[in-house]
Amino acid sequence: MSRFENINTALIHGGISIDEKTGAVNIPIYQTSTYKQDGLGKMRGYEYSRTGNPTREALEALIAELEGGVAGFAFGSGMAATTTVLSLFNSGDKVLISSNVYGGTFRVLDKVFKNFSISYGIVDTSDEAAFEAAITDDVKAVMIESPANPLMTVTDIAAISKISHAHGITVIVDNTFMTPYLQKPLSLGADIVVHSATKYLGGHSDLVAGLAVVKDKETAERLAFLQNATGGVLGPFDSFLLIKGIKTLGVRMDRHVENALKIAERLEKHSAVKNIYYPGLKNDPGYETNKKQAKGPGAMISFELKEEYDIKVFFESLELIMLAESLGGVESLVCHPSTMTHASIPEDIRKKVGITDGLIRLSVGIEDAEDIYKDLEKAIDRSRK
Ligand SMILES: *Cc1c(COP(=O)(O)O)cnc(C)c1O
Questions:
Q1: For the stretch 284-303, what's the b/e string if a residue is b when 16 or more beta carbons lie within 10 angstroms of its beta carbon?
Q2: Report field, pTM of the whole predicted structure over 0.85
Q3: Quick check: is 174 catalytic?
Q4: CA 208 – ligand 1 centroid, Å
Q5: Strand order in the sheet with 71-75
Q6: Would you place residue 350 in the very low, low, confident or very high pLDDT band (cuts 50, 70, 90)?
Q7: pLDDT higher than threshold 90 for residue 236
Q8: What is the mean pLDDT of residues 273-286?
Q9: Positive or negative, the Cα torsion across 98, 101, 104, 105?
């Protein structure tokens, strides 16, 4: 639990926010692999940086406090966080995943964990009846994203948690798109939160990192063991950068959401737009649920242009917004999910879950909203066949 009532204060003073030894207002980068021992068995709290490092620990304490968990863990990427969390399960266990789950999460289950006899099932977690119907005795975990990538499908985290707990199923939420500033899955009933901190938490497209937070002590001990045993830890310099990024999360998210709302409302009315997916729009099927469980709709928008528009020309006509993988940085980015972020999902599954070749995903940055919209409008105009 956070010592601070308001997250804006916790973002800056949460975790271990000053260096005890010197009073430095930023936790130093402890760029060391090992620590001198004062005698056999006489350590000063640290022995080796895979096991523990003060800069990483400050970050881990911070994310635990922000998400309201008992312990946080920092990894070299979001996928390392997810992989380590999935390593809590055993052969014979089955993991259910949201149908719009991140491509890499699907891939690690399909191509890696399957070889260790951990199976997976894809289910629309926005449909509670469908989710309940997919539960079999071997289901031990469900992994949710809300809103889920790239169609921004919203899942009722509290409802899925309630059903899951009645069946002894662990609820894991990938909170990358929302961050604890907008949504706190543990308080909604989830057991574990994972993040690609590469995105909004880092916020500046200058690092790759992953985080996990757990709600109970027993899982914390098991995950601490796995973090050290499998070794995908985050280095001290990136831990420092991530702490620095998190300090401005509140002001950044406010602007991200404000910009995204303005842009989504205008795109929705644009005659070239066939479909738009953004839970901040009143017509979006996830609007009410998202409003109930989160402080805002985030800043990821997906949309499809009508057939008269050539999306290849659209991407090439953008001048301000960059075509790139990733999201959540201060700069606006676009991507083409079917050939980029979701290319590792087989075509038949992609089609089934609605990831069409015409889909465009926009990560709205914190530039001037008018400038972002003008760039989109101009590229849409130029792409008319
Ligand atoms: C990027 C992303 C990941 C993977 O994180 P990496 O830091 O790239 O390993 C996982 N989940 C979501 C929702 C993401 O956007």
A1: bebbebbeebbbbbbbbbbb
A2: yes
A3: yes
A4: 9
A5: 71-75, 210-214, 192-196, 170-174, 139-145, 94-98, 119-123
A6: confident
A7: yes
A8: 97
A9: negative
Q: Which residues pair with 48 in a beta bridge?
A: 34
Instruction: Give the integer Cα–Cα distance in Å for 163 and 85.
Output: 21
Q: Tell me: the pLDDT tens digits for 175-227?
A: 999 999 999 999 999 999 999 999 999 999 999 999 999 999 999 999 999 99
Look at the chain and count its residues: 385
DSSP-derived secondary structure for 259-302: HHHHHHHHHHH-TTEEEEE-TTSTTSTTHHHHHHH-SS--SEEE
The yes-or-no answer on residue 102 being catalytic is yes
The answer to whether 348 and 290 have CB atoms below 8 angstroms apart is no
**Which atom of ligand 1 is the closest one to the Cα of 176?**
13
How many whole angstroms separate alpha carbon 261 and alpha carbon 299?
Answer: 8
Q: What does the pLDDT read at residue 352?
A: 79
Given a cut of 90, is residue 35 above it in pLDDT? yes
Question: Using CA of residue 76, residue 80, residue 82, residue 85, what is the dihedral sign?
Answer: negative
Active site residue 199: yes
Instruction: State the alpha helices, DSSP H only, in the chain.
Output: 7-13, 54-67, 78-86, 103-107, 128-133, 157-166, 179-182, 185-188, 217-230, 236-247, 249-269, 287-293, 311-317, 347-352, 369-382
Query: For the packed helices 249-269 and 236-247, what is the interaxial angle rounded to 10 degrees?
Result: 70
- CA–centroid distance, 194 to ligand 1, in Å, is 9
CA distance 60 to 57: 5
Q: Which long-range contacts (CB under 8 A, 24 or more apart) does 356-359 make?
A: 356/304, 357/311, 358/274, 358/304, 358/305, 358/311, 359/150, 359/151, 359/302, 359/303, 359/304
Residue 81: which of 73, 93, 89, 91 has the closest Cα?
73
Q: Which of these is catalytic: 93, 110, 156, 174?
A: 174
Domains belonging to the chain, first-starting first, are 7-247 (3.40.640.10), 250-382 (3.90.1150.10)
Instruction: At 327, give phi and psi (nearest 5°).
Output: -170, 175
Residues 6+ apart with CB under 8 A from 178: 146, 147, 294, 298
